[in-house]
Amino acid sequence: MDVETKKNSKIFHPFLIAFFPIIAIYSVNIGFIQLEQFILPTLLIVGSAFLFFLCLKYILKNGKKAALIVSLSFIIFFSFGHVYNMLNQVSIGDTDLGSNKILLPIFTILFGIGSFLIIKTKRTLDNATSIVNTISIVFISVIVVMVGIEMFGCDECLIQQDTSWEFDFNSTEKIDFSPHFEEHSFEISEYETLPNVYYIILDGYPRNDVLKKHMNFDNSEFTNLLKQRGFHVAESSYANYSFSSQSISSTMNMGYVNFLADQFGEDSREYNPLLGKDVGLYADNQVIKNFKLMGYKVVKIGSAATYIHKMPLADLSPCYKTIHLMDNRLFDAVGRTSMIGYFIERWSEEQQRQIVLCDFEELPKINDYFEERVFVWSHITLPHFPLIFGPNGEPITPGTSLLTMNHPEYTDDSWDVKQQFVQQIQFTNKKSIEFIDKILENEKRAIIIIQSDHGSAFGVNLQDPTDDDVFQRLSNFNAIYFPDEKHREMLTYDRTNVNTFRIVFNTYFGSDYEMLEDKTYWGLSIKKPFWFKDVTSILLN
After folding, report:
1. Which has the least CB within 10 A, 193, 226, 253, 424?
2. The pTM is what?
3. Residue from 354, 302, 345, 342 nearest 326 by CA
């Protein structure tokens, strides 16, 4: 018994193998997953491996056999998603090798055969246990080294896996940005005549000429409908920055954010100055502060990433979903590599659809919630990936699996994906016209601003962009409606987003903001949010 106990103490490979998918997924998303998110998946996955091991050991009366079966089960369970992705587009005749109908039975049979052989063997399995122990140690060690390299910032060794969706934004350390932005007084003679202001960000919506050039899609029907309703649609608008966090922070603070490079360093991976809860430029911005100063209520609507689910200055946040299990991005990504990954992806897609639909439904209702004037800030993840809507809103399954949090645009430049993107634009157009018409029907005075934070990025090389890459990514959609004919002449200006609210405040609220010089900046990587390259000369000649 003592000998057996001693041997059993050397069995640790099931727990390392169970931990492997957790740290492996983290290694390719480092900097975008909070370290504390290790807790939940580790407890659930490694804990389940331990319980499974104890149960099998009790049933089989053999620790080594139980351990090998547990390791086999976790290898099969968590390798399924990777095999599925590799074979997803492979067919023999009419048979799709990546089909769940094919792979699930195969993987189940492999597990059954493997388990049967382990149970029936008469060998002691000492050597097998030692080999699997050693292999698991080697694999974990390699991943740990990779994580260490990433953490110490070896740029030559970086795994280029650009992502969005999740950042470290929990810092509560207040940063004083006031020296970098102007504070103005406002002259309001009649509060009752002031308009409600709607600012809608359609994430990643390209300009018409980009859609025509890169996707062969004529979007003039939509822009003509906007013009018929009195919108000024900018024909030569550009985003000031190539990534959402930089671009929107710039627009909402009516200034450039390049000072962050001087303050924190170009190589910094710290996102709190941009996206920190209560402290970042994204949420704690000058535009909202101005509206609050003037007695406006602030409503935040958004289906964009987790970091804007709540906003400290908002008086109302409809469509906000409470945190659920899959809000742990690491657990979500690991789950997508497993045999239940298909069901996780379908569930996540449906959740995203429901939030987006809620956003569109709530936009025209906002005026009913308050007697006071209202500023509405809505960040909607359309037509941005994932591609989950057909042209009429019918649900579709994205062509690219989201096993990690990468941008499919950068890796999939296929015509089929571009056409799916166009279909999602068509649905975005339809829903946009619907809520615009409802707002204009219900309100005599409303300012409506519809802008994208940047354009598309099909085939774009972030590290070494061509002029066309810069043009595609920074050419953004920009349409503005002023309720007064006499003020619409101010909307002939259509260069970049940074002056949008300077124009609004000067026109309707008696401020005296000066117009800033138009500048556009390229970002090397979303992992380095304060690295900026001036590309103004490419776009604004």
Report:
1. 193
2. 0.81
3. 345
